[in-house]
Automatic annotation (TrEMBL), chain A:
Residues 23-462 form the Amidase domain. It is an enzyme of class 6 (ligase). The active site is at K78 (charge relay system), S153 (charge relay system), S177 (acyl-ester intermediate). Belongs to the amidase family. GatA subfamily. It comes from Ilumatobacter fluminis. Heterotrimer of A, B and C subunits. It catalyses: L-glutamyl-tRNA(Gln) + L-glutamine + ATP + H2O = L-glutaminyl-tRNA(Gln) + L-glutamate + ADP + phosphate + H(+). One of its GO terms (cellular component) is glutamyl-tRNA(Gln) amidotransferase complex. Transmembrane segments: none annotated. This is Glutamyl-tRNA(Gln) amidotransferase subunit A.
TrEMBL record, chain B:
This is Aspartyl/glutamyl-tRNA(Asn/Gln) amidotransferase subunit C. The gene is gatC. Keywords: ATP-binding, Ligase, Nucleotide-binding, Protein biosynthesis, Transferase. Residues 67-100 are annotated as: Disordered. It catalyses: L-glutamyl-tRNA(Gln) + L-glutamine + ATP + H2O = L-glutaminyl-tRNA(Gln) + L-glutamate + ADP + phosphate + H(+); L-aspartyl-tRNA(Asn) + L-glutamine + ATP + H2O = L-asparaginyl-tRNA(Asn) + L-glutamate + ADP + phosphate + 2 H(+). One of its GO terms (molecular function) is glutaminyl-tRNA synthase (glutamine-hydrolyzing) activity.
Length: 475, 100
């Protein structure tokens, strides 16, 4: 399906001694050097670190040891995940000069599994956006058509996989920031169940919504990466203390007997090409033995409103820590409050300021009940609606994004037009359910279309099982 | 533009959020936030009086670890990224009274 070696192929080769991790990393660094001046997937290429780590992996194999299930696999990290000794910016000026003193748990787990980090990827500032146009360092281009956006906010991570810079990258998904760019770049993107993957070391945006997950070319590589990064972490109080199932073992099971939910009252707005591919995905699953069930999720319609009150509210609180005192940028002032105002005014970009203002407003005295409080109640309705739907079906299927990749600048004038990109992805963040995007054919201008699979909490296995069937149907 | 928000309210919110807005930025922010609140009006008519709010998808309970010493971050490494520090402490301008 892909012209690039998969993570599984690399890990198998490196572990058996047939491939050298140092050769693999050089190939990927060469590809980055060749084209990333144009694509700009990376904020920072970790070339020296990658070479050192790859050599260490090879040394372990030479000494008769096993470097782990992701031995020698190049991995790109969204630049909102802490990497000890390597700059971490959130694509914001406000973190200028900051070098984290610790690794995020996901970074530690990938390193322990033998992965080789090649760099930190670009994002919409603090993960706020759907096009990576909000980065303080300039946009990332879609490798499939450089006149178009890669999606966002994890646009750099999606582009890094699509461009062949790494077979695996990590993104974070607060309202669709993994699934939407995955769809727009033609790769697989997974948002696990809230709490499945530790958020320790992920710089917080919306703490009750954020979740880390992988981008890959194949469903099998996504399963491999999830296996590595999922699991309880005592350092994250929202981490779920459940064992991680063997995700790779379900991929060949097919979908015979599974019930696939089609949401009857899905908000419209998806382009005809996206609707057509989604219909074909239903048909493909039905042909493979699944049953299509129509379900109702009436609260789906209110997801966008609930999300754009809850996420900015949480963000306004989380981003209060960027005040010029402990890390990053400081712009001096006569007293501490003026210093904080000067720092934040100079350090945050327009979209981040917009969301901080919206969130502060939604939480402020006199408006809390009308906005934030009401949004939390809609969140309850959403969770109840989904729970009812899961009584009738095993997973739900929908478009991932309303459209294929769009041209630069086409949605920047109207913030709400950009927010509409998240219509189909937001509900799974509000409920905490796992969801993923799988490439399924192409739409307008031959650009990829992704379909979304949503499963009940901790239902990653059945979600991946369905994704693997769609992958077989699409190829 | 909607009349859901006045520039005064937005200016107050900006002060709470420790952000300075120029007069132009204040006008633009007022317009954009009003437009958003108009879009969000789809929830105005919902009767949610009987619905319990859901704060987090995961039922949060306090988990206390044993009260024993654990390694902490390296102090010098942490302070190295501070904009200004002195003797292992963060340095800030006067908290009260400016230059006085």
């Amino acid at each position: 399906m892909s012209e690039y070696p998969t993570a599984l192929q690399i890990a198998d080769g490196v572990r058996s001694g047939d491939l050298k991790a140092v050769d693999i990393v050089e190939q990927h660094l060469a590809t980055i050097a060749e084209t990333d001046d144009e694509i700009r997937a990376f904020n920072y290429v970790m070339a020296d670190e990658a070479r050192r780590r790859a050599a260490a992996v090879d040394a372990t194999v030479a000494a008769g040891g096993d470097p782990g299930p992701m031995a020698g696999v190049p991995v790109a990290l969204k630049d909102n995940m802490c990497t000890r000794g390597v700059p971490t910016t959130c694509s914001s000026k406000i973190l200028d000069g900051w070098i984290p003193p610790y690794d995020a748990t996901v970074v530690q787990r990938l390193a322990d599994a033998g992965a080789v980090f090649v760099g930190k990827t670009n994002l919409d500032e603090f993960a706020m956006g759907s096009s990576t146009e909000n980065s303080a360092f300039g946009p990332t281009r879609n490798p499939l058509d450089t006149s178009r956006v890669p999606g966002g906010s994890s646009g750099g991570s999606a582009a890094a996989v699509a461009a062949g810079y790494a077979p695996v990258s990590l993104g974070s998904d607060t309202g669709g920031s993994i699934r939407q760019p995955a769809a727009l770049c033609g790769v697989v993107g997974v948002k696990p169940t809230y709490g499945r993957v530790s958020r320790l070391g992920l710089i917080a945006f919306g703490s009750s919504l954020d979740q880390i997950g992988p981008f890959t070319h194949t469903v099998a590589d996504a399963a491999l990466t999830l296996q590595t990064i999922c699991g309880h972490d005592p350092g994250d109080s929202t981490s779920i203390p459940e064992p991680t199932p063997d995700y790779s073992s379900v991929l060949d099971r097919g979908v015979d007997g599974l019930r696939i939910g089609r949401i009857a009252d899905l908000p419209d707005g998806a382009d005809p090409d996206v609707v057509a591919r989604t219909d074909e995905a239903f048909a493909a699953l039905e042909a493979a033995g699944a049953t299509i069930v129509d379900v109702e999720v009436p609260a789906f319609t209110y997801g966008l409103t609930a999300y754009y009150l809850i996420a900015p509210a949480e963000a306004s609180s989380n981003l209060a820590r960027f005040d010029g005192v402990r890390y990053g940028l400081r712009v001096d002032g006569a007293d501490v409050e003026e210093m904080m105002r000067n720092t934040r005014t100079a350090g945050f970009g327009d979209e981040v300021k917009r969301r901080i203002l919206l969130g502060t407003y939604a939480l402020s005295a006199g408006y809390y009940d009308a906005y934030y409080g009401k949004a939390l109640k809609i969140r309850r309705l959403m969770a109840d609606d989904f729970a009812r739907a899961y009584q009738q079906c095993d997973v739900l299927l929908s478009p991932s994004s309303p459209s294929v990749a769009f041209p630069f600048g086409s949605k920047t004038a109207d913030p709400f037009a950009m927010y509409l990109c998240d219509t189909y992805t937001i509900p799974a963040n509000l409920t905490g359910d796992p969801a993923m995007s799988v490439p399924f054919g192409t739409g307008a201008d031959d650009l990829p279309v992704g379909v979304q699979i949503i499963a009940p909490a901790l239902g990653e296995s059945v979600m991946l099982q369905v994704a693997a069937e769609l992958e077989r149907s699409a190829s | 533009m909607s009349d859901r928000l006045s520039p005064d309210v937005v200016a107050k919110v900006a002060r709470l959020a420790r952000l300075d807005l120029t007069p132009d930025e204040l006008d633009r922010a007022t317009g954009q936030l009003s437009d958003m609140l108009d879009h969000f009006a789809d929830i105005d008519a919902l009767d949610l009086s009987d619905v319990e709010p859901l704060n987090s998808p995961y039922p949060l309970v306090n988990v206390l670890r044993d009260d024993d010493e654990q390694p902490t971050l390296d102090r010098d490494e942490v302070m190295a990224s501070a904009p200004k520090s002195e003797d292992g402490r963060f340095w800030v301008p006067p908290v009260l009274g400016g230059d006085s």
